[in-house]
Structures are given as C-alpha cells and as structure tokens.
C-alpha cells in the first residue's frame, strides 16, 4: 500500500497502522481459501450474491472479505464485481494448475504462528522459544504438514533443480535426497533421467509422503527410503549427486559445514551437491522474500538463518567443495547453489 | 512489497506468500516497540551492537528484527547501519512529539487479534463471533484500553475537528461528546473556546480516562461526566454541538438513524452534529485504510461497517439534519461529517 518513499508525499501514520493490523491479511487470505472464494471468483459472474451462494456464506461477510482482498491486491473490483488479478488466477484459483493455496495450511498454521506471540522474548534471547531444537527437533510433526502442504510451492522449482543437477547427463546414477520432505526434488531427477536411482532421507512419517508422491510419478521402483536424521544415519553411497534442499537455513554455520563435509564424503569425485535456499543479497534486506525469511529462522530455530551466497560459498569451501555456483531460479525467490566434490 | 500491477513483470507467488505471512509484520512491529528499538535507532549510531545494548537484547535477534523492519519499510539500512525512515522518525520514535507507538497496545492486542482465528465462520454467518454485541457489548473493557492507547492517533484529529465544529464561534456554548473515550475531541473544543462547557458521555470506567485528560489540559472545571450508554441515558441539553466520533461504524444503518434522531432532538435549532469516521470511497475498496476498516467491523460487531459518505448523508437526512458536509482531515485517513439540526 502507501509508503513514504515518495518524499514529496505528506507523512501519514498509515504505514504504522497497516503493519500493526497486517495480521488481518493472513486471516483474510486463509479464510478466502477455506471458503473457496477464489474458485467462485474464477467461475464468475463475481457479484456478492453469487459468491455468497457458491461459498455458503453471508453476503455481508463476502462483500467485506472480497473488498478487503481488493485492498491487499489479491482481487480486483470492476463495476462492482470481483475478478481475479493475474496472481490470484494463477496461484489461488483451484482450477489453475499452478494453484498453491494448500501452502496456507502450513504457512498460516496456528501452531506456526503461535511462537510469534513471544517475539519480544525471542529477540532478547536470540533463539527460538520453542522447546529443544525448535522446528528441527527430531520427529517434529510439522514436517509431515510441510511435506503435504508445501509441495505446490516447491513443484515449480523441481524442474530447474533437476536440470542443474543433471546438466544433460543420462545413464545410471545414484542420487541422495536429504530432508526429502514431499520428495519432489529427487523424484524430478528420476523423471528427467530414467536410469537414476534416488534415495530419500527424512524422518519416517515424512518419507511416507515422499513415497506416495514417487508412486504417483511412476518412479517408485527407483525410489528408496533411508529413514532417520541427516546427522545420524550413514548416507551410504557413493552418490553422483546429493540434494540438500530447504535444510541448511535451520542450522548455524559450523553445523552446516559439518553436514556438508559428510555430504562430500558420500559423493563420488566430481559429484554434485545442490542446495536450494532463500539467498538474500549481501545487504540482507533484499529481495524482500529471501531477506524476510531470516525472521522465520529466528523464531523457529536456535541458530539458523537465511544465508547470503558469500556465507554459503564459505561453508562449501570449508567442507572441501569446489566450483561453487549460484543458480537463481527464474520467477521464484529461491536460489540453487551447487558445488563439486 | 512486490505486486503484479506492472503487467510486464513475470508472475511470482510472492504476493500469496507475503500475505500468508503478514502476521509476522504485526509481531515484528510490536516487538520493536516493546524493546524500544526505535528510540535506539534514533539515538544512533545504528549498528547492531549498540541497538542490542540499548534494548538489552541479543545481537542475532536485533540484526534479524531490524533487517525485517527494513524489508517492511519501517527502517532504512545504510552502510550496514539502521536509520529512521521519515515515518518511523515521526510516528515510532518515542522522542517524537507525534509518536503513536502506544496504539500497538490496542491494535495488536491479543484479545483483539484472537477473533480473527474464526474469520471463516464469521464470513459464513456475517457477524462477529464474539458474545453478545461484540465490541459494543456494554462495559466491554477494551474501550478503557482504547481510551488509554489510541489517544496519540486521535490527537492530531482533535484540532481540525474543533475548528470544523466551532467554525470561528466564541462565547458560551454547550457541547456533548458522545462515546468520549479519551475525551480529546471535547477537550479540544474547550481549549479552542474558553467559554465552552463540555459533557463527556461514555461508560464510567472509560470516562475516568477522559476526566484525567481534561485535568491535564486544564479544562476540568468546564468538563462534566455523563456516565452510561449513548442509547440509554438522557442526553440533557439543548446543546450547541454534539460530537459523535468513531461510533456510528459499530451499528447498522437503522440504529445509526435512531441515534442521530436522538442527537438532533438534543441540539438547539441550527446546532451542529459532527461525526468522525473512516469513510471509504463509493467503490468501498479505496483509500486502503478506510476501506480495510470494514474488516474490523465484520469481525467485532453484529452489523457495523465503514460507511461511505453517501450512506452517512442518507442517515443524517433520515434523522432530520440538513447541510450535510464531508470534511476530509488532511494527512489522515479520517473524515469529519457534519450536519445542522
């Protein structure tokens, strides 16, 4: 909405007011997804009465909710009727192949929002107020929810990651997918190379989601499970490639270096390690989404962070990798970083 | 942050992701206010270590919090040091006379955020899920908190409201301030006209805040209390002016008309009724702050709304007022609407 970047604009307290009430945005988007508002808008005609009928909701509630979604730029209003924006059509209408509304089940889950009630204390102490290791406490059930909910957000990244890792290479190969979660990254490598065998490593309840996805993708006969913690289990190998996606940010640099050392030891000479991360610029305040991700790591982990490329390259180097390269993923806030054993 | 308004920009799910996580903005701003971060930034030099010392907080916590505040445009970062934006200097640094950080105590109060956990059900039913009449249930203690916390947000509006109501008029006059709250509006009229006598009407615990403010302003000998409900008590009078600020939005149009009728009956012929409201444009989706206010009314009241000027003018007309005029308050999202008895 309004900012004071245009220095000629008069100062108003809008930016303060809007940020104090920003929690309403989360609630509104979550409610709209739960009520199937975005499907109703896509089907048209987009008047309050028809959306209310489709969603089995009151006209007062729908009118105010949809007006609010226009204010936060998740819908448009033209001649009194609600229409999709390009973003809501692509990412929020369940009839779109790119719909990722299910991520609301993870990102705005009450259990994941509750820790922010203690943010003042967390900033004081400098670490999560969650018990133990926070979100990376062994067997934390949120990772089953992550695997189930976040797949549509990760799916568009799998193709680019597979191409970076394979780099045109066919033929027999072994791939380890650490913290596999939904499994989509390893599965994509198996789809792109029909002779690749993939081992998914994660806690057992999470791996059940990955195996189900491997079955749906028709690669289950080349998909093996390695249940346990990345820090505890023997990786086996040697591998041609190791995927380490959405994982390093949970830990401090020393822990990352130790893990990368273990990864390198499991790779064939010249094998590829590939991480997928939110990588902010060196200023740590841009681009917005990777930079803001540090806040999630402050609240949910003892010492994690959104690492800059320089920091990640330093970890890789200390773990004995060479040819360390950043591959920004087009149309995505994510960056793939690769190194060679 | 980023939007898809520039249609040439590639589509990314950023707008979905950011709104699902917008609750972090509320938590971050609230924590920064509680930790006194904005005072520390104002005092300089603005490096992580000195802000951490000032706030008795960890360097990891402060670095991540302040970076996040830069992302949401509430601070700037220059050469690794945090600095105020024009807005944060004016409205968030406690050393500024315009600081309104105390409004966080009301706007992001957990008791006021909790109802949004039920927004899906609220949209279905079309009314607050709070018991009884919601936020306007008699003696609801949130109005004491409102009176204590929101005064700095309302103070800049009092001067313009007083000038509109007095319109240059001096001499003896009687003014009724309905739902007086912090009392600042009636008190300002008493300050602008040394012969004005003001009666503040509100629930007794709230009026204690108003009387204390009248004492601080030195007008307590011309300030009377009328404790009770605007719908229940006899207004007395006749008055030269009646103030009805931040009140009509809680009720449906019929209730507003009935109350405005009662107001008109308490006024001298030609006397002025003045409401202060968030008044959205007729499209109900602009400007952002008045338009978004409907959401608060959906969640906290049975039938309230952010009324357009056309709707307010219709209520005034049905209650027998004439000369109905909108006075937008400069540098504020509020509008004063007046009518003559």
Overall description:
- Two copies of one chain form a homodimer.
- With 341 residues, the first copy, chain A, is an alpha/beta fold.
- Chain A is built from 16 helices and nine strands.
- A seven-stranded mixed sheet of chain A has the order 5-4-3-6-7-9-8, with helices on both faces. In chain A, strands 1-2 form a two-stranded antiparallel sheet.
- The N and C termini of chain A lie far apart (47 Å).
- The model of chain A is unreliable at 1-7 (pLDDT under 50).
Tally the beta strands of chain A: 9
How would you describe the shape of chain A?
Answer: globular
Count interface residues per chain for the largest interface.
Answer: A-B, 92 and 92 residues
Strand order of the largest sheet of chain A: 5-4-3-6-7-9-8
**Given the helix and strand composition of chain A, which structural class is it?**
alpha/beta
Instruction: Output mean pLDDT of chain A.
Output: 94
- Helix % of chain A is 40-55%
Count of helical regions of chain A: 16
Give me a quick take on this structure:
The structure is a homodimer of 341-residue chains. The first copy, chain A, has helices at residues 14-20, 23-34, 37-43, 48-55, 59-71, 86-91, 104-107, 110-113, 119-125, 142-149, 151-166, 184-192, 204-216, 253-265, 288-300, 309-318, and strands at 75-78, 81-84, 173-178, 196-202, 223-227, 239-245, 267-278, 322-328, 334-340. Chain A has 341 residues and is α/β, with parallel strands linked by helices.
């Amino acid at each position: 909405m309004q900012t004071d970047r245009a220095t000629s604009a008069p100062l108003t307290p809008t930016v303060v007011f809007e940020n104090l009430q920003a929690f309403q945005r989360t609630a509104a988007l979550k409610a709209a997804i739960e009520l199937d508002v975005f499907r109703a808008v896509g089907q048209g005609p987009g008047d309050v009465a028809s959306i209310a009928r489709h969603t089995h909701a009151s006209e007062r509630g729908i009118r105010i909710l949809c007006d609010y979604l226009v204010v936060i730029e998740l819908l448009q209003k033209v001649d009194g009727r609600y229409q999709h924006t390009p973003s809501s059509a692509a990412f929020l209408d369940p009839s779109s192949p790119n719909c990722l509304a299910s991520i609301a089940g993870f990102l705005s889950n009450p259990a994941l929002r509750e820790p922010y009630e203690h943010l003042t204390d967390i900033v004081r102490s400098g670490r999560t107020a969650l018990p133990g290791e926070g979100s990376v406490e062994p067997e934390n059930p949120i990772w089953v929810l992550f695997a189930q909910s976040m797949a549509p957000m990760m799916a568009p990244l799998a193709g680019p990651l597979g191409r970076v890792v394979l780099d045109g290479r066919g033929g027999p190969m072994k791939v380890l997918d650490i913290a596999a979660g939904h499994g989509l990254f390893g599965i994509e490598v198996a789809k792109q190379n029909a002779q690749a065998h993939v081992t998914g490593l994660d806690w057992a309840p999470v791996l059940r989601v990955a195996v189900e996805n491997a079955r749906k993708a028709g690669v289950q006969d080349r998909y093996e499970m390695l249940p346990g913690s990345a820090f505890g289990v023997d990786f086996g190998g040697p591998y041609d490639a190791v995927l380490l996606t959405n994982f390093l940010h949970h830990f401090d640099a020393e822990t990352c270096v130790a893990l990368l050392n273990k990864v390198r030891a499991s790779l064939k000479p010249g094998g590829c390690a590939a991480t997928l991360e939110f990588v902010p610029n060196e200023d740590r305040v841009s681009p917005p989404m990777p930079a803001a991700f540090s806040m999630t790591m402050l609240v949910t982990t003892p010492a994690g962070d959104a690492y800059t490329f320089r920091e990640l390259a330093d970890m890789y180097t200390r773990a004995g990798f060479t040819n360390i390269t950043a591959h920004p993923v087009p149309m995505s806030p994510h960056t793939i970083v690769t190194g060679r054993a």
